[in-house]
Structures are given as C-alpha cells and as structure tokens.
Automatic annotation (TrEMBL):
GO terms for molecular function: nicotinate-nucleotide diphosphorylase (carboxylating) activity. The lineage of its organism: Bacteria, Bacillati, Actinomycetota, Actinomycetes, Micrococcales. Belongs to the NadC/ModD family. NCBIfam families: nadC. It comes from the Bacteria. Signal peptide: none annotated. It catalyses: nicotinate beta-D-ribonucleotide + CO2 + diphosphate = quinolinate + 5-phospho-alpha-D-ribose 1-diphosphate + 2 H(+). This is Nicotinate-nucleotide pyrophosphorylase [carboxylating]. Involved in the catabolism of quinolinic acid (QA). Pathway: Cofactor biosynthesis; NAD(+) biosynthesis; nicotinate D-ribonucleotide from quinolinate: step 1/1.
Length: 305
C-alpha cells in the first residue's frame, strides 16, 4: 500500500473527531527536521540549562483558529525525548478562541527547548491551513461545491498539509502525478500538435489505454473546448480561469455529463460567487501555498532544578 493510499484511508473527511495520520511518514518528516535543526544537539541549552532541570510549558493560541497538527506537535516532542509528557487539550479539527490552552508539555527542560521550534513550526503551519480551509468551506455552505487542495504544497510536507485541509473541512485532490490523469493546457498543446480538431480523437485513444478505475480529468480554458472534451467521456472537466458567468454557462453545457471543477482566480472574496455557479469542485492552491503561520506560542510556566 502506498503512502498516499494510507492517508486516504486514515484521514476521514470533514472536521469529525478522530482524524489521524500514519506514524511512519510523520516520523520521517520529524527526523529530517531535527537533522536540519539540531544536527549535533542544542548547544545553547547544553550551555545554559542544567541537565537536571525540568520544565512545564503550555501551547497557547494567540489568535482564534482551527487546530491541525496536535498529534504532530506531541510526536515532535516525544521523538526528542520519550520522557517528555504531552497532554493534548484540544483535538485536531476543533475550533478554538484566542487564549485557549491547546496542549501542556512537561519534561527535561533541555529536551523541551530543543523540540520547541520544530514542533511549533509544524503545528503553526498546519493550523493556518486548517483555519484558511474552514473559511473557504464556510463561504460555500449551501452549495454543492467541495473545496479541495492542489499539488501546490511544500515539498516534503504534502502529507501534513493535506491532512490540515481535511481538518478544516476541505477535501483532497489527487495526491500525486501517479494517482490520476489530469491533462492540462500544456499537455493538450503538445498532444494535439496545434491541431485542436483532433482533441476528441486523441483523448479517446488515451482513455482506451487506462484501467477502468483510473480517474480522467481534462482542463479547458475556453468554452469551445468543452464539447470536444466531453465527447471523449472524461470523468471531470476543469474550467480554468473562467469568469463566473462563463462558469455558470459551462455548468449548463456539461449538464451532468461529467463532474465540473473550477480552478484559477479563487480567493476568499470570489469563492462564494464561484460556488453559486453550480460547480462540483473548487480547487484552491492558496489553501497551502500562501498561508502565514498561525500565531501559536509555547510558554514556559515552570522550570525546576
């Protein structure tokens, strides 16, 4: 079983209790992060903090949001030192207010301080993605549109960022280039060799080579491409950078013959209008590629020793 199929089975859609991540891939991410951040340990803490000192700290929310990465935060702490105790006070997928205590950490002070930055970096980014996703989902309530991510993720962190989208109530697009066929404008330009009249024929030939379970999606950027693509029996047609008027016309033209995805020019100000056109899916690269870390802090309450 591939890593992404594990994720798709383990992560349940929506902000339901019990969202989980597989331990193996998360551990690999954390090991790489510590190899980068503390290749020979934390020389500051080793110099300044007595070996016997213990610390208790709280993960505090300085702004409201949706939590994602609580278990990653815990695993980041305990990978450094199994002697660190982490009490998760808020679950992944839950909303919280500014001032909420999200987790409590206690253990050897040197270990807590070494783990602090990696643990915070990940939970801050993941919670920012979940919070942004929840905003988009809220703006499309009452429509048929599903908010999804894209492959515009941070290299090496896709598994975490996709999970965060689910924590925010969104859905996931294909995990990788290996998962589904998505023919975009550059594919079509090369494939047709500048002869758009052959588009349907070439797509039919391509589809005939696919297994019956492989999803086939094609991107179009003009209204006159819709019928030739539909004639090839695709599963999803992506309307890229269409105006809302064109999206509504495109949905009417497709008329249920394929799933309709809207992409391009999607932001917090346009998403409600896009959803109202009747599209089935709205893919939003901004969920992952332009978020700023959510303001969470690890505040030491007590140091003993």
């Amino acid at each position: 079983m591939t890593e992404h199929s594990v994720i798709d089975q383990a992560v349940r859609p929506g902000r339901a209790p019990g969202l989980t991540l597989p331990a193996g891939p998360v551990r690999e991410i954390l090991e790489r992060a510590y190899a980068e951040d503390a290749p020979a340990g934390d020389i500051t803490s080793q110099l300044l903090i007595p070996a016997a000192a213990r610390a208790t700290a709280v993960l505090n929310a300085r702004v409201p949001g949706v939590l994602s990465g609580a278990t990653v935060f815990r695993d980041a702490m305990q990978l450094v030192d199994p002697g660190i105790s982490v009490e998760l006070l808020v679950a992944d997928g839950a909303t919280f207010d500014a001032g909420t205590h999200l987790a409590r950490v206690s253990g050897p002070a040197r270990s807590v301080l070494l783990a602090e930055r990696v643990a915070l970096n990940l939970v801050q980014r993941m919670s920012a993605i979940a919070t942004r996703t929840a905003e988009f989902v809220q703006l499309t309530r009452g429509t048929r549109a599903r908010i999804t991510d894209t492959r515009k993720t941070t290299p090496g962190l896709r598994i975490l960022e996709r999970f965060a989208v689910r924590c925010g109530g969104g859905a996931n697009h294909r995990y990788s280039l290996s998962d589904a066929v998505l023919a975009k404008d550059n594919h079509l330009a090369v494939m047709t060799g500048g002869d758009p009249a052959r588009l349907t024929e070439l797509l039919l030939e391509a589809r005939a080579q696919l297994g019956h379970t492989t999803h086939f999606e094609v991107e179009v950027d003009r209204m006159d491409q819709i019928e030739p693509v539909l004639a090839a029996g695709v599963d999803t047609i992506m309307l890229d950078n269409f105006s809302t008027e064109e999206l509504a016309a495109g949905v009417a033209l497709v008329a249920g013959r394929a799933r309709v995805e809207a992409s391009g020019n999607v932001n917090i100000h346009t998403v409600a209008e896009i959803a109202a056109t009747g599209v089935d899916v709205i893919s939003v690269g901004a969920l992952t590629h332009t978020v700023a870390a959510l303001d969470l802090g690890l505040d030491v309450e007590l140091t003993v020793g």
